[in-house]
Design a protein that fits this description.
Elements (H helix, E strand, L loop, with lengths): L3 E10 L6 E11 L4 E6 L5 H9 L6 E6 L2 E2 L7 E4 L11 H12 L5 H14 L15 H14 L4 E5 L7 H18 L2 E6 L2 H7 L2 E5 L11 E2 L15 H16 L5 H7 L27 H9 L6
Parallel strand pairs: 3-8, 3-9, 6-7, 7-8
Antiparallel strand pairs: 1-2, 1-4, 4-5, 9-10
The protein binds adenosine-5'-diphosphate and magnesium ion (MG).
Length: 308
């Protein structure tokens, strides 16, 4: 019996007549201690899938089993880290983590809780910033607080929803290294959502592509056979890395969104033209004259008066 098992799960939103079918027939089996990366297009339904795994939303069809039990609602055994940090801005770094620890471990002594908070903030190299508030931190530091807060709750599964997506490349690389170290040390069960094939291959045991929506579904599981610890500097010369990357990217390209052309055909542009503010085309239009309409320009061109 897999640790986390998703069976024939589908999810849609909206009223019956204009329902948007986001996820279709999702099947996923994850063993304890495995690090799985799911990679897909923006808007495909990655966050929806994460919310289902966290128990924040319910599937329309199918079921999700966690350690053999049907999942019922969210719980501290599944910790989630979102892309947008979600810290409380009026609390310090220490207090943001302590709040979660107090809720999950209320029976511990205050000294034990303090030591626990400090340990996890040290794990993400934030000891010098304990008393700072989020507005005083860089994006990378804020995301470290989020990670420390989730780890400190000691979840049995770590759900990471594009946690590094908003960071610049260098900070992103540093945090990838930290995540890799922490997850290997703890042998955590992790589901990482990302849109970066290199990040997925660097961190995970296997990568699963999510096809473009609507009705997005998971593709084949691609094992990452690269030995650990991995050194990204050697990737460019590594044949296995290139093969895996090729496989992931090719699958995603084949499964890319198809309806863009149809959408463009139906697009009706409003009957207005951008205003010329360069001042080179005759007198300036009065401020209250409203937008310039295309019919008006055509009329001027043929010398006929226009309606006011
Ligand atoms: N609560 C909701 N109500 C209605 N539509 C939603 C809801 N959550 C997500 N969606 C829609 O589902 C689709 C997938 O969203 P999401 O899971 O956030 O994508 P991703 O994380 O891959 O960018 C989008 O079209 C989004 O508008
Ligand atoms: Mg998302």
């Amino acid at each position: 019996m897999p640790f986390l098992s998703v069976q024939h799960v589908s999810k849609s939103f909206g009223p019956p007549r204009s329902r948007s079918h986001v996820l279709h027939d999702i099947n996923l089996q994850i063993e304890e201690g495995e690090f799985v990366a799911i990679i897909g297009y923006s808007g495909a339904g990655k966050t929806t899938l994460m919310s289902l795994l966290a128990g924040l939303t319910e599937p329309d069809a199918g079921e999700i089993l966690f350690d053999g039990q049907r999942m019922a609602g969210p719980g501290p055994d599944r910790g989630i880290v979102f892309q947008n940090y979600s810290l409380l801005p009026w609390l310090t770094v220490y207090e943001n983590v302590a709040l979660a620890v107090d809720q999950v471990f209320p029976s511990w002594t205050p000294a034990a809780r303090r030591a626990h908070v400090e340990k996890y903030l040290a794990t993400v190299n934030l000891t010098p910033a304990l008393q700072k508030v989020p507005s005083e931190l860089s994006g990378g530091m804020r995301q470290r607080v989020s990670v420390a807060r989730t780890l400190a709750m000691q979840p049995r599964v770590l759900l990471l929803d594009e946690p590094l997506g908003a960071l610049d490349a260098l900070t992103r690389g540093t945090l990838q290294d930290e995540l890799s170290r922490i997850c290997q040390e703890d042998k955590k069960t992790v589901v990482l959502i990302t849109n970066d094939p290199d990040e997925a291959i660097y961190l995970a045991d296997r990568v699963i592509p999510l096809t473009a929506g609507p009705r997005a579904t998971l593709g084949p599981s691609i094992p990452i056979t690269l030995p650990r610890p991995r050194d990204r500097r050697t990737f460019n010369e590594n044949y296995d890395f290139k093969q895996i990357r090729h496989e992931v990217v090719n699958y995603l390209l084949k499964a890319r969104p198809r309806d863009t052309a149809g959408l463009l055909k139906k697009l009706v542009l409003p009957n207005i033209e951008p205003e010329d503010i360069s001042g080179t085309r005759g007198p300036r239009r009065p401020r209250n004259a409203g937008p310039i309409r295309r019919a008006e320009i055509a009329a001027v061109a043929v010398g006929t008066p226009t309606e006011p």
